[in-house]
Design a protein that fits this description.
240 residues, mainly alpha
Length: 240
């Protein structure tokens, strides 16, 4: 600020237009220095942490068995179809029920692989309104904020991808067979589940769970802070 004040003494010497230009540059420089010294770009750090969650953790879901053999995110039979599962197994069709569950997970694995750019874009475009509060929150505060503010939009973009993946891995055919066989059983109430909606929601849940894993790593493990921004920003929450 002393430098800016000093410039006023030079007005008679350097001319008004030139002075205004110098003053603007000096003011901008002070603003940058002020921002750097008083408040690291916390929002940028949080976004980088979320993006790292996609890179390090969500990518694991795209591999074969990424969902199916991960108990934290494995997609099971929908609650309303538990009776279908029981009936099929009782009728000696356990393999069909097992194939149905595996097909759901294969579809999720394929869909997340195809839709990864959607998640990256959502993180890039997210507007973090209270970055400091989120930084000082619990181990999943940033992921929870992402989930709350982007789920509706993500669902709309992700659902068509899931529908395509269901057909790509043959899950639609398997589930059509499961539902038809169940509906032909005597004394049962016919069912017609929306498998696309179910897999979309469960896949999104899985994605957010895995991002949470990485956020917690970054918050609690110094070695997970692999960039200057992550180190500077999350060092602030270490002091709380």
């Amino acid at each position: 600020m002393k430098k800016i004040a000093l410039l006023f003494l030079l007005v008679p010497i350097i001319g008004n237009a030139q002075f205004k230009d110098i003053l603007k540059k000096a003011t901008d420089q002070v603003a940058v220095l002020s921002k750097t010294n008083s408040g690291l770009d916390i929002a940028a750090g949080l976004k980088e942490a979320l993006n790292k969650g996609v890179t390090e953790q969500v990518s694991k879901l795209t591999k074969t068995d990424g969902f199916y053999k991960n108990d934290a995110v494995k997609i099971l039979m929908p609650d309303e179809l538990v009776k279908v599962d029981r009936a099929l197994r009782k009728m000696g069709m356990s393999s069909l029920a097992d194939d149905g569950i595996k097909a759901l997970n294969r579809a999720a694995e394929d869909a997340v692989k195809e839709a990864t750019p959607i998640f990256v874009t959502a993180i890039k475009n997210i507007t973090i309104t209270d970055a400091k509060s989120i930084l000082m929150g619990n181990d999943s505060a940033a992921t929870a904020y992402l989930q709350t503010t982007t789920t509706k939009e993500l669902y709309a973009k992700f659902s068509p991808v899931v529908q395509t993946s269901l057909g790509k891995v043959g899950a639609d055919v398997i589930w059509d067979s499961i539902i038809k066989k169940y509906n032909t059983l005597p004394f049962v109430k016919k069912v017609n589940p929306d498998i696309t909606d179910y897999v979309t929601n469960k896949s999104l849940e899985g994605v957010f769970k895995m991002i949470t894993v990485e956020e917690k790593n970054i918050r609690t493990n110094l070695n997970s802070r692999t960039s200057v921004v992550l180190k500077k920003v999350f060092s602030l929450q270490d002091k709380k």
